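To assess whether the prediction recovers the assembly geometry, we first specified each molecular entity separately, as shown.
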Amino acid sequence: MKIIQAIEVVDLIGDGSTIMIGGFLGCGSPDGIIDELISNRKKAFTIITNDTAFPDKGVGKLIVARGAKKVIASHIGTNPETQRQMIEKEIEVELVPQGTLVEKIRAGGIGLGGILTPTGVGTTVENAKQKITVDGKDYLLELPLRADFALIKAKRADYYGNLQFALTARNFNPIMALAADKVIVEVEEIVPVGSISPDDVHLSGVFVDYVIVGGRK
Amino acid sequence: MMKPKELIARRIALELKNGELVNLGIGIPTLVANYIPNGVQVFFQSENGIIGMGPLPKAGMENPDLTNASGLYVTSLPGAAIFDSAISFGIIRGGHLDVTVLGGLQVDEHGLLANWMIPGKKVPGMGGAMDLVTGAKKVMVAMTHTAKGRSKIVKKCNLPLTSIRSVDLIVTDLAVIKPTKEGLILKEIAPGISVEYVIQQTDAHLIIPEKVPEMSLN
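The predicted structure of the complete assembly is given in tokenized form:
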């Protein structure tokens, strides 16, 4: 694990990268990292995220700043700008049921070749996906998702990169940290090794590449 | 006179039983939490990762790390539990959630629900709705009976379906309707509404029992 400044993500993350961004309607999103990407006009990202939040919050700001080429998300209804860009064909949007999205990401991170879910069977989500019947029940084969970078938010890290999340700011963050080549975590504080008790480590530092201290305490 | 949305929420609240784990969707369903009957304790799950969600905080007491699935600040009650999105949807899909209450755009004669997009007009996305309808033990739809003068209860949904699983109960501002294998049964009517009026406002076949009581409200 390496501690870096927020500005350094600008060199790490190239235009056009596939990035996962944690957060749920802006709660638990790495706002400091997002702000650096915006102010340095990074663009053409494929963004994998639960939702595109609000125009002035979280990943929503990156959409408004035209940082996206494609969005893979479960919900874009709270950000009119995402819908506008989609309708004008400025960006491509792939909608995935939320429970399926998180499992696709998890599968990508834990070495599974896909998951079988009943969600979406018989709906437009089915599309051209392979349907598999197990014990008489139909499931869709949903394939793993991975990214070049996962940009996540945690409450605190220790110097090994062990993470602790806070309340519902946890959401997609620990799952996305499993499924990217490089994981960049924004935290509110870094604490000495050993000060987070082993039982209270929500995600092992083994998944973490970079830590940035930013945001509120 | 009671507002239609309040009436729907009050009637839905009567369906909730002590100890149940309940997920409320955006819109009218959110109001249900205000009308839980005395003596009934339910646990609210929110798909962003909490069981034991409490009421909205007082001004100035918001915790930026504690929100509901609408992105609004909430509180947590003693005994609350936090989990990540994979566990949250494991609860939903895995049959651990007793009840979900969702809004609807259309419900048809087979009890099938469409509630996530209007092609060419509005594409918010399904969020957690498809998983909720697929996995919850009981699915209740809380919606106004009509929108812009058109019945939201239809012969066959022409909007994209949320799931191929039939919902268990529909509560509108006019009626309580139960989808069954035989079709939609009119179970109750709203105060001051006649059976004939419900039939006239419904663009689907309703099975009318001999007696259709007025809905009780909490």
